[in-house]
Design a protein that fits this description.
alpha+beta; eight-stranded antiparallel beta barrel; 8 strands
Length: 206
């Protein structure tokens, strides 16, 4: 009996450390929980909100009249800067033209997309220079007496411009553009007889 008791005690003493280690392995430490909570999810990028300071608005305006005609243009747009050199925008063109000699009028309007590139942003002398591209899908409503006519006329302007800063995010733009429509879509002819155009505009933020 004494030998059996000694054997039982010895078995208990040998099994106790194993039981203790098994119990310890099954427990989860508080420090492990804290560290796991702080680990970011891999493969997920943090979404950056739009920066309101990168938005810009502007408009080109035009007024032209002669002995037998009157023309008025307004060209508003809004855009967002993608870095220091790339600035896409969307806008609307509207032109009113009236010919007194024929008593006919044109209303030309439609949406457009714009891309401005500033390759010399870092240059002190050329930082105001930018390249300009534009595609406009214009609707032409013509009226002469009781006759009316509607047509679609795209414009595909490319060129360059110059920015003059007034401070506090505002300034003036001057643009020299060429319409590629007659070059790309031959033999179709644009209703705009002169493919060259010059614009003066105002902006805030660009």
């Amino acid at each position: 009996m004494k030998t059996f008791a000694l054997s039982l005690i010895a078995c208990f003493m040998l099994a106790a450390p194993y039981y203790g280690f098994s119990q310890y392995d099954d427990e989860v430490r508080d420090s492990d929980i804290i560290n796991n909570d702080k680990k970011p999810n891999r493969g997920m990028r943090e979404k950056k909100p739009l920066n309101l300071n990168n938005f810009f608005v502007g408009s080109g305006v035009g007024l032209n009249f002669g002995g037998n005609y009157f023309r008025f243009d307004i060209l508003p747009y809004i855009g967002y800067r993608l870095g220091d050199a790339i600035a896409p925008a969307v806008g609307v063109d509207y032109t009113f033209f009236y010919d007194y000699s024929t008593q006919s009028e044109l209303n030309i309007w439609g949406p457009k997309v714009i891309l401005k590139l500033r390759p010399f942003k870092a240059s002190r002398q050329l930082q105001g220079l930018y390249l300009y591209g534009e595609y406009a899908h214009l609707i032409v409503d013509a009226k002469a007496g009781s006759s009316t006519l509607r047509a679609i006329q795209p414009r595909e302007n490319v060129g360059f411009g110059w920015t003059t800063n007034f401070g506090k995010g505002s300034g003036m733009t001057s643009e020299f553009l060429f319409d590629l429509y007659n070059v790309i879509h031959k033999p179709n002819v644009s209703i705009f007889n002169n493919p060259f155009s010059y614009r003066i505009g105002f902006y805030y933020g660009f």
